[in-house]
Design goal:
Length: 124
Amino acid sequence: QVQLVESGGGLVQAGGSLRLSCAASGRTFSTYAMGWFRQAPGKEREFVAAITWSGGIIFYADSVKGRFTISRDNAKNTGYLQMNSLKPEDTAVYYCAAKYSVGDYRSRYEYPYWGQGTQVTVSS
């Protein structure tokens, strides 16, 4: 198993930036793909971005493409989500998740390991 802990959320004005971190412990983080998802009040949890174990393949939701950047540092067992040009509609609880590097990276149902989430609030 792998345990995940997110950090870096907070309150930011529209147009601002935040960097989320996802610290992993337990089994070797480098063997897992990592994804970021978010859930706004009253809405389903949605895919944001994902990165394969090596970092060689990256996926983004259309809503964040060009504004968010996913990355990972396997030596530090940490993943990141750099969020720029934030909009009020980006307000949500952000979760990192881990899965084996097969299957559908955009589906939350394929991720067995989840962090507790970190709140991101973007004011207009």
